Amino acid sequence: MYFKLPNKIIDELRRWLPILSLTTLIVFLVGLYFSILNSPPDYLQGDSMRIMYIHVPAAWLALGSYSFLALSCVCWFIFRNPNFNLFAKSIAPIGAIFTLIALVTGSIWGKPTWGTWWAWDARLTSMLILFFLYVAYIMTWQSIVNKELAAKISAALGVIGFINIPIIKFSVDWWNTLHQPATISKLSAPSIHISMLTPLLIMTFAYILFLATLFLIRLKIEIIEQKILRANK
Amino acid sequence: MISDLFYMNGYGVYVWSAYFFTLISFIILYYYYYSSLLKKEQELKNLQLKNE
Amino acid sequence: MSKKVKKRLITILLSVLVLLIATLLITINLRDNIIYFYSPSELQETTINKRNIIRVGGLVKDGSYKYNDKTKIYSFVITDNSNEVNVSFVGIIPNLFAENKGVVVEGLAIDKVNFTALKVLAKHDENYMPPEVIDALKQEGQWQEE
Asked: CA-to-CA distance for C130 and C146, rounded, in angstroms?
């Protein structure tokens, strides 16, 4: 699969970037309106459950980003096309920030709900490891000067780290954890009322748009850096 | 009404700090990425001008 | 050049440190501790070391939550519907602690059915509902407490 990057499409998207950013902002504001002003408090948690609207999408996308990263690394191993590494390199810092946001907001939610900021249960610990995996991936690219070697090591790391993703997902089912099991695990009957599901879905959509915007910018930066590198040779 | 919104039955300090942290990180991230994209684009343009 | 070498060295050392911390976290915190807490039934099967701090979790048994004004001791029963553990505790109970709701206590087991808690954590379930909906469901008799 020796594909070329669809540079024309990327350049076209680059031209639409201001509009994409604006759309993200608008969806975000709508999401904020629903999650803070136009949704009921929970019957037990009260208003503290509003943190869920910014916590859950961050956690979902943190897992999604890593899956994308690992997939890109696997593709690189198979096809040895450097473009796959560009994808992985572009998504890594974004995934790391989303993981950090999930950890911090979760911690802030944990204090009033559980009565503690942090617990070393399987879900929280594996999520912290996900953050370290992102950091380690980014650092291999920065610390190893030989880029061919860096490509190999980082790709290996990205693939090995994927083992953590099912652990995070199923930790709440496999082991006794302080963290509750998934609310929206079955599509038929999620254990969440529609008035609370709406802000959650809008927020998730906003997060996805934001992820796409950042990914596009990051990818474009990586492409330009390569062009500069080639021009300087 | 407004003070109710900030207080949120005692949960306000948690809710607002969580939202504040998220929004601030998003704004910083976006600003940093967008400005470095503009910088790189300028750098590439200068390089192309020099080579011509 | 030497500046570059220095920078490389620092980043390599940092990444090694990060990996080390990550593996340490796995080995120390997950090895004995993948299970964050024991259920009352699991507590029956484990050999109790009275000096080790352990955690027990389950539901707070209906009608078992009591507070002694003189001794300042909270007491309640954790159940998993087959076995029970009596818990006593001095300190701050979290807001969401309630009978028929999930709880995790951290502390020392006196024996297989008596426990002294040093910390009480409320374990939340995965349901999110507005209060009006709960009231309506209760009126219709459709709401089932766990």
From this structure: 18
